[in-house]
Design brief:
This protein is an alpha/beta fold. It is about 35% helix and about 20% strand. The protein has a six-stranded mixed β-sheet with strand order 3-2-4-1-5-6. A hairpin with a 4-residue loop joins β5 and β6.
Amino acid sequence: MDTITRLYLIRHGQVVTYADKSYNGHRDVEITAHGIRQMEAVADRLRGEPLAGVYCSDLIRARRGADIIAAFHGLTPHPTPALRELDVKLWEGLNADGVEERFPGAFDAWREQGADYRIPGGERVRDLAERVIPVLREIVRSHVGQAVALVSHGGVNRVILADALGIGFDRLYSIEQDYGCMNIVDYCADYAVVKLINRRLLDGD
């Protein structure tokens, strides 16, 4: 029987810029009081799970959740810069309307080029995958037969889920990732099984 390594993959809680629907990328923004409650709900769900490690992006919105989850288990989170969100650079602080106004045709180009579209000054989705997946593989290798939590971002989570499902990265945003959601992926020696996607443990945005 295959040895299973379980990944609890979590998106950070609601951010203070949520009402603007702006792109944050590498911009460091806090989570709201509701975002904290979302992370507390995830922590409560994982209270009885024997977590061997808690990993996160080094951006504050992910670290807040990781701290809350880790505290239940007497663990110290491992903040990792490679787990940051897609670097949107010149889109930072803009919402979709603002992007279209400043960069006409950007979303059409993104749809056409998929994972190879480079946000002005920033990254391609393929770049995101190339920095996230090796780190994920190392985390899994370090915890064979154990369970770990990873608190990160919508784009990062989508890359990890797409990789586990073997569906490629061109249609990444066909995978929903709400604030504070949890996903579960079981890793075996040669394959992964996605057990849960986008489970919200607390109602609200």
